[in-house]
Amino acid sequence: MIELTIKKYLDEHLDVPSFFEHQKDEPARFIILEKTSGAKQNHLLSSTFAFKSYAESLYEAALLNDKVKQVIEQLDVLPQVSGVHLNADYNFTDTATKRYRYQAVFDINHY
Questions:
Q1: CATH dotted code for 2-110
Q2: Per-residue CA distances from 13 to 43, 69, 101 (Å)
Q3: Could you read off the pLDDT tens digit of each residue along the chain, which spans 111 residues?
Q4: E strands within 13-71?
Q5: What's the predicted TM-score (pTM) here?
Q6: Distance (Å, rounded) from C-alpha 111 to C-alpha 107?
Q7: Partners of 46 in the beta sheet?
Q8: CA dist 30 to 34, 64, 100, Å?
Q9: Rounded CA gap, 48 and 102, in Å?
């Protein structure tokens, strides 16, 4: 399951925790990763992932987003990953909870 592979890689390369969903007691800075879509063509899998970087300020969220992008762009060192492409990244402050976050969206080719 590519989601577990990516989460493990994030946890090994970042100094903040990553989760698949919100936790009851969240730290000030963390990542939520979400697979938003997937496809298969000629037996090759591709998935689109959103990485939401939460922090105590918009500036800190932007810095964390940059770190996440640097780590995810190196995913293709893993044997399960054949390509990583940044689709978009942007300020994605949560207006409902008033929490600062940035979001980076990647297209990831994998086996």
A1: 3.30.2000.10
A2: 30, 11, 20
A3: 999 999 999 999 999 999 999 999 999 999 999 999 999 998 889 999 999 999 999 999 999 999 999 999 999 999 999 999 999 999 999 888 889 999 999 999 999
A4: 18-19, 30-41, 44-55
A5: 0.94
A6: 13
A7: 39, 109
A8: 13, 9, 11
A9: 16
